[in-house]
Each structure stands twice: as C-alpha cells, then as structure tokens.
C-alpha cells in the first residue's frame, strides 16, 4: 500500500518513519519532505504543496491513506477537499481545525462546554483592550486570534509589556488578519504537559504523554521557540491525572464538537497547565501532533501505525489498543545559529550516526544539495535517545548528538529536566 504524509518537519519525518515500518507499506510519500526523508529508501519526497495537485497525485497513484502533519493545510481545508474527492485522510476539517486556527473560537467553545481554561475576553478595539488590562493587572497573557506560528502569544509580566503587545497586534497590525482580534487571558502558573489523542469523530485513543521545552536556553530561559526538545512519558501525568484530563477536558471536547455539529477527527493536542494543587487547565488546543513531541512518541510506539490509521479513518478507533516501549524517549532539537529570529541556512551537516535501537535522528530543516546535507531551517534535527530512565535516555541522546556537526549548532543540555525532578 502507498501512503502520503503532508509536511516537511521533524514531526512528519517521525510519522513517515513509523508508517514505513509496516510490512504492508510499499512506499510513503512525504510532501514536500526534507533532507532526511529524501535519504530514506522507504520514503520518497514529493515537491507538491498545492492541495488540488496533491489530491490529483493521490488519485493517480492509488494512495490508500493521507496523514496531515501541520496546521496550515488543515486550516486551509485539505481534509474537506480530499474527502469531497472520496479520499481517505486523517485530520480535522477546516471547521473543526478552528479549535487551533482561532483562539476566540477555542475559548468560546471551552466556555460553552464547561472545559477548564483561563478566564478571558476577546477584543478588536485597542482602547477596550488597554482598559481591560488596566482593570485586571499583570501578569496577563495576550494572544493573536489566528495562526501565528507560535509567535502570537505574549506572556506579559508587566502592564507595560501587556500594553505594548496590544499595540503590536491591534494598532501596528504585526500579525495581519491573524492579529486583528486578540484574546486577553488570565495568567496561569504551574507545569505544562502535552496531552495528545487520536480521534475518529467519536472514539478517542490517547497517545503516550509528553512534555515540550519551549524556551531557547537551559533552565527555561531566553525567547520562546517552536520547541527545543521533548520527552515521553511525562511523569506529571500520573494515571489519576490522565483519567481526570480525559474526563474533564478530552471527552467533553470531542462530545462538544460532535454536539455543535462539527465532529473532530485527527490528532487533538491539549496543551495543559497543571497548577501546584494538581488541577489541569487547557492553555490551547492544537489540531495536529506536536513538534517535537511526535519524535519521542513515535520512537516509543510499538503498534503498527498503518493499522491504527486505517481504524482512525474508518471510525473504528474503539477497536485499537496501543503498545508502547516501556523506556523513556528524550528528543533534543539541534537548531541553526540565529534561531529563532534569523536562522543561518546552507551550512554543511556531518556525522549523523545510523539509527540504533537506542537512538534515532529525525530531520527537520535539512535539504540535500548536490548530494550533500545542509541546514535549511531553524530547527535542523531532533536526536531521540531511549533508555530505562530519563537519565539513561538523556545519555543516549546527548552521546549521539555529540557526533553531529554543523556550524553554529545550538541545543539545550537539560531536555527532560522536569522528568528527573519527579
Ligand atoms: P504553539 O506553538 O504551541 O502552537 P501558540 O502560539 O498556539 O503556541 P499557546 O500554546 O497558546 O500559543 O501559548 C504559548 C505558550 O505561552 C504556552 O506554551 C505557555 O508557556 C504560555 N502561555 C499561554 N497561555 C498562558 C496562560 N494563560 N498562562 C501562562 N502561560 C501561558
């Protein structure tokens, strides 16, 4: 069977890598893919980004199943388009993807269905937003309504910072349409975790738990990034916490979407904030898997992902149980010099070791130029190590990444630190 994965990041490399392990798979196309998916003989890059052209390719090549990685094609309606042409595709429709593509939609949805989240108000008028901030005080969080590639959120520790964020988004129009409306919400303190499930419209299948590391530098310092590393499982999500998140957040979300007439299928990612008393609240929804959470999660998945995907697109996820590697997986992102503001591209990459049962390297911002691998984006690689504890998994990841070289390579040395603490 042939499969298509849409996207070009580390998340898509990890999904394609896992799908290609199935004995039933002949080839996994990755559109457009990266330097790593180009080099894997079981994968083939497809230089197509236009959704109609992609659908035509899928029909012509008899591709059995499409899995969509990033949010942009989902918000652009790839699932609506593929389904209208009778194609099997795993992901939410454009309407369901609003859980991620509009923060105002997500917040109103949560309020309507009693799903725990920070208190908020939505504004398109700057004067009203400023007045609200003065009334509420700092710290306070300002969010652009639309998709802003992780850059549309300002956690303001002072009133000045909060007012400035409103100016940037509403008055200076920094994020265009995505920032024409803003959500201002209560600051939540606590520890974050990523809670990702698969859904077929009604049945829910939770994946292994994980935690991301958003800040650029060790000890959670420096600017926010797309994510500098992740590990799985996340010990803060105990079995009791897992049951509670399913009961209070995930199940009401899936039931609420169905009730509102926009059933959700695809990966649903709830970004959680768990406070000191152990109460979880929803920071955000993503309608896709996390990057880099996917890399350690896929490294631990033992079940054939193709079979799972078939159940997912046929509405029979209730028949699936997932088997996980009992080890911890720690994924460390190697980023280019200048990331996140202005990553340097075109530097040669050397020394990526072959995959072993203890370590695998997934590509993101890499490209093959004249047979050589070079950096082509901010987050370049994600090295995943597996071990019987967080410490041993870290050791595998860090020993592996020491063999890799490109000019200006930067990475955090503490991925998984919260796991050591628990
Ligand atoms: P992503 O790249 O994860 O899609 P995003 O732009 O959708 O990011 P959010 O996940 O909503 O933004 O917020 C980004 C980060 O800001 C969160 O991971 C969290 O650290 C912080 N944050 C968001 N909302 C709050 C809040 N209410 N209180 C405290 N911190 C918050």
Record the SSE blueprint.
Blueprint: E1 2-7, H1 10-19, E2 27-32, H2 35-39, E3 43-45, H3 51-60, E4 65-68, H4 71-75, H5 78-84, E5 89-90, H6 98-101, H7 103-112, E6 120-123, H8 126-136, E7 140-144, E8 153-156, H9 159-171, E9 182-186, E10 191-200, E11 204-206, E12 211-212, E13 215-217, E14 221-224, E15 229-232, H10 239-259, E16 265-274, E17 280-286, H11 294-300, H12 305-314, E18 328-335, E19 359-363, E20 366-369, E21 372-375, E22 379-387, H13 390-401, H14 417-421
Helix pairs in contact: 1-11, 8-9
Per CATH, the class of the largest domain reads: Alpha Beta
In angstroms, what is the radius of gyration? 21 Å
Number of domains: 4
Q: What's the main sheet like?
A: 5 strands, parallel
Descriptive report:
With 422 residues, the chain is α+β, with helices and mostly antiparallel strands. The protein has 4 domains: 92 residues, Rossmann fold; 56 residues, Dna Ligase, domain 1 (2-Layer Sandwich), CATH 3.30.1490; 129 residues, 2-Layer Sandwich (D-amino Acid Aminotransferase, Chain A, domain 1), CATH 3.30.470; 94 residues, Glycinamide Ribonucleotide Synthetase, Chain A, domain 4, CATH 3.90.600.10. It contains 14 helices and 22 strands. A 5-stranded parallel sheet has the order 3-2-1-4-5, with helices on both faces. Helix 1 runs parallel beside helix 11 and helix 8 runs antiparallel to helix 9. The longest helix has 21 residues. The mean pLDDT is 96. The site of adenosine-5'-triphosphate has 17 residues, from strand 7, strand 8 and strand 17.
């Amino acid at each position: 069977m042939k499969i298509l994965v849409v996207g070009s990041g580390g998340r898509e490399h990890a999904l394609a890598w896992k799908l290609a392990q199935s004995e039933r798979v002949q080839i996994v196309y990755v559109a457009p893919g990266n330097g790593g998916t180009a080099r894997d003989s079981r994968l083939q890059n497809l230089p197509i980004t236009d959704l109609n052209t992609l659908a035509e390719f899928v029909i012509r090549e008899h591709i059995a199943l499409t899995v969509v990685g990033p949010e942009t094609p989902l918000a652009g309606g790839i699932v609506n388009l593929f389904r209208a042409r009778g194609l099997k595709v795993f992901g939410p429709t454009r309407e369901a993807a609003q859980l991620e593509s509009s923060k105002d939609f997500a917040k109103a949805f949560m309020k309507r269905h009693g799903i725990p989240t920070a208190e908020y108000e939505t504004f398109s008028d700057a004067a009203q937003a400023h007045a609200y901030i003065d009334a509420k005080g700092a710290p306070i969080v300002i969010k652009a309504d639309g998709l802003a590639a992780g850059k549309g959120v300002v956690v303001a520790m002072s009133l000045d910072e909060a007012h400035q964020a409103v100016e940037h988004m509403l008055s200076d129009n920094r994020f265009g349409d995505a920032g024409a409306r803003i959500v201002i919400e209560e600051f939540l303190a606590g520890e974050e975790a990523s809670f990702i499930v698969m859904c077929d419209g009604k049945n829910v299948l939770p994946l292994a738990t994980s935690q991301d590391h958003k800040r650029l530098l060790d000890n959670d310092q420096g600017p926010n990034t797309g994510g500098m590393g992740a590990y799985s499982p996340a010990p803060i999500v105990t079995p009791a916490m897992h049951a509670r998140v399913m009961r209070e957040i995930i199940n009401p979300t899936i039931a609420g979407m169905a009730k509102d007439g926009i059933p959700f299928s695809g990966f649903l990612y709830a970004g959680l904030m768990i406070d000191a008393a152990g109460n979880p609240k929803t920071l955000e929804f993503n309608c896709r898997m996390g990057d880099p959470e996917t890399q350690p999660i896929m490294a631990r998945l033992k079940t054939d992902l193709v079979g799972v995907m078939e159940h997912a697109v046929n509405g029979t996820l209730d028949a699936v149980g997932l088997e996980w590697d009992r080890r911890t997986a720690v994924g460390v992102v190697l980023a280019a010099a200048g990331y996140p503001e202005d990553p340097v591209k075109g530097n040669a990459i050397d020394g990526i070791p072959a995959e072993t049962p203890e370590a695998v390297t997934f590509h993101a911002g890499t490209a093959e130029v004249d047979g050589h691998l070079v950096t082509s984006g901010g987050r370049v690689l994600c090295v995943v190590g597996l071990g019987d504890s967080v410490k041993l998994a870290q050791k595998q990841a860090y020993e592996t990444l020491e063999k890799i070289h490109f000019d200006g390579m930067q990475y955090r040395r503490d991925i998984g630190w919260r796991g050591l603490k628990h």
